[in-house]
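User: Second chain of the day. Same drill as before.
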Amino acid sequence: MDAVSYEFYRDTYHGELTQAAFEHARVFAEAYVDDITMGRIPDELEESVALRIRLAVCAVADLYDLTSSRTGIAAETNDGISVTYESGTGRSEERAFYNTAAVYLAQTGLLYRGVC
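Assistant: Same format as last time:
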């Protein structure tokens, strides 16, 4: 899979992360997309599928940046000084990553888990 450039992220996807934040998140996003497609992204792709893959990487990078910048506090009250912490990466967060990528990859056949 070709790396998604910051220019594509900014100009085509219209993302708002800084270049440094995007480059950090892109590493995870590309690995994640490769993982959920079971490494089946071929080197030669038709342009419509390549576009969907790049958009999926951008969307996952945005979500990764959003979830990694959390403080870990789920709820906090001031008067009673009560703090509730997030339980960490759970199934719902994993599902959010998959659903985000699936918006772009669903019609490509790359998410199919059966035998081809």
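The helical segments are 6-11, 19-36, 47-68, 91-105.

User: Great, on to the next one.
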